[in-house]
Design brief:
single chain, 383 residues, alpha+beta, 6-stranded mixed sheet, 27 strands, 18% helix
Length: 383
C-alpha cells in the first residue's frame, strides 16, 4: 500500500502539481479577485485635468471679481465652477460657494469667508497629483480588490491581463446524504453545498457545478468525466470500503494519484489526483471537519497556484495550550487567539462543525506536539 504523504509534503505537492492559468485579457468587471499578470502603469497623468475640489467660483487674483462666462479668466474675474469641474486657464484659486456673495455681477467675500481666503491654489486639484504618466500603479501578482480595479478604471484601462480565478466543480457523494428535513439514523444532512462554495471563493476560486451524486461508480465516473472546470473537489468516498468508489473510478479514468493520503488528523484519507485532460481532483473525506482541514491542506495551495498566487502562508503564533505528541501525524485544530496564545476549541471532532464556526485560525500541531508558550503556526481562515 502506498504510504501517506507528510502534511508539509502534501501542501507542497498541491502547490507544485500545476502551473498558473495562462494570463488573458478580461474586462474590468471580471478582474475583481483575480491576480494581475502584468505591471500596471498610468497611461497619462491622474487626474488628467485640473479640477475644482469645491462648488463655487474659479477666480483670478484678489477680489472683488467680475463674473464672466466660460473661457480663460482675466485679472479680477471669476467664473462659476462645480466640484470636479474643469479649471479655466488663468485661475489662481477656487472660492467656495459659502464664502462668496454675488451682487450685480460682482463676486465679493462675505462674513463666512476665512482669513486669507482664497489663497493661491486653494481648492484646486492639479493635473497628475495622484500619478504621473508612466508611474507604476499596481504590481504584477497583486490580488485585484474592488479598489485596485477602480484605480485601473481611473487610469482609463478597460481590460487587464490577469490570471483568472480557477473554476472549481464540487461533487458531494453518498447515499446517506439528504438535502432537507430531519435525517433518520444512518443518514446525515448535506452541509457541503453550503460550506464549500463560499470557502472556495474565499480561497481565490470560482465555483462551477455544485451537486450531489449517490454511491454509484458509474454516476461518479460520468460526473468526473464532464469537462469545464480546472479543479474538481469531491467529498466522501475516499476510503476503501465497499461504498467508497473514488479511488477505483480515478484508476479507471487513467488519473495519476499524486497524494494517496496524508499523515494528518483529521483528514487522513484525502487524496490529490490529475486526470488525463489536466484537471485536478481533490478528494476530501466525508466528515465535515476532516474535509475542511484537508481542503486547507490540498485545495488551498492548488487554487492559489492556478490563480497565480503564492503558497498560502503559515502565520507565526504562540501556543496557549500543551498538546501531546501524535507520532508521525500533524493535527489541524480549529482554534482562537487569546491573551495566553492560540488555544484549540472544543467540539472539533472530525464530524463536528461548531468548533470551526467559532474559530479564527487553525492551529498546526506538529507530530511532536506543542508546549504552552512554544512558537507555533496557524492557518488563517478565509471568512
Amino acid at each position: 500500500m502506498t504510504s501517506a504523504s507528510t502534511w508539509s509534503d502534501a501542501r507542497k505537492t498541491a502547490y507544485t502539481i500545476a502551473d498558473p492559468i495562462e494570463p488573458s485579457m478580461k474586462p474590468l468587471a471580471e478582474c475583481i479577485g483575480a491576480v494581475l499578470a502584468e505591471n500596471l502603469h498610468a497611461l497619462g497623468p491622474m487626474p488628467h485635468y485640473a479640477s475644482s475640489a469645491m462648488d463655487g467660483w474659479a477666480v483670478a487674483g484678489v477680489g472683488p471679481w467680475q463674473l464672466q462666462g466660460a473661457g480663460p479668466l482675466g485679472s479680477q474675474t471669476a467664473s462659476p465652477v462645480i466640484t470636479g469641474g474643469t479649471i479655466p486657464p488663468g485661475t489662481t484659486s477656487v472660492l467656495r460657494s459659502e464664502s462668496g456673495t454675488v451682487n450685480d455681477g460682482l463676486l465679493s467675500l462675505n462674513s463666512r469667508a476665512k482669513e486669507n481666503e482664497p489663497w493661491p491654489g486653494q481648492h484646486i486639484r492639479p493635473e497628475g497629483t495622484e500619478a504621473s504618466q508612466g508611474e507604476l500603479l499596481v504590481r504584477a501578482g497583486t490580488v485585484l480588490t474592488p479598489a485596485w480595479v477602480a484605480v485601473a478604471a481611473g487610469a482609463t484601462y478597460d481590460n487587464l491581463s490577469i490570471h483568472r480565478r480557477p473554476m472549481v466543480d464540487i461533487i458531494s457523494t453518498g447515499d446517506e446524504v439528504i438535502a432537507r428535513g430531519t435525517p433518520s439514523p444512518g443518514h446525515v444532512r448535506d452541509t457541503f453545498s453550503l460550506l464549500l462554495p463560499d470557502t472556495v471563493r474565499g480561497l481565490g476560486g470560482m465555483t462551477g457545478r455544485v451537486f450531489h451524486t449517490p454511491d454509484d461508480p458509474q454516476k461518479l465516473t460520468a460526473a468526473l468525466a464532464t469537462e469545464g472546470a480546472d479543479v474538481v473537489i469531491t467529498t466522501g468516498g475516499t476510503g476503501t470500503s465497499s461504498a467508497d468508489h473514488l479511488r477505483t473510478v480515478l484508476a479507471d479514468l487513467g488519473a495519476d494519484v499524486v497524494v494517496h493520503s496524508i499523515a494528518m488528523r483529521p483528514g487522513h484519507p484525502a487524496l490529490l489526483a490529475v486526470l488525463p485532460d489536466g484537471r485536478t481532483v481533490v478528494g476530501l473525506p466525508g466528515n465535515p471537519l476532516a474535509a475542511m482541514m484537508a481542503l486547507l491542506t490540498l485545495g488551498a495551495p492548488l487554487i492559489a497556484r492556478l490563480g497565480g498566487r503564492p503558497l498560502p502562508e503559515l502565520v507565526n503564533a504562540v501556543s496557549g495550550a500543551e498538546l501531546a505528541p501524535l507520532a508521525g501525524r500533524h493535527r489541524l485544530l480549529p482554534a482562537q487567539h487569546t491573551a495566553d496564545g492560540v488555544i484549540p476549541l472544543p467540539r472539533i471532532g472530525s464530524g463536528m462543525l461548531r468548533g470551526l464556526a467559532s474559530a479564527d485560525v487553525v492551529l498546526v500541531v506538529p507530530p511532536d506536539g506543542l508546549v504552552r508558550g512554544d512558537d507555533a503556526q496557524v492557518i488563517r481562515l478565509s471568512w
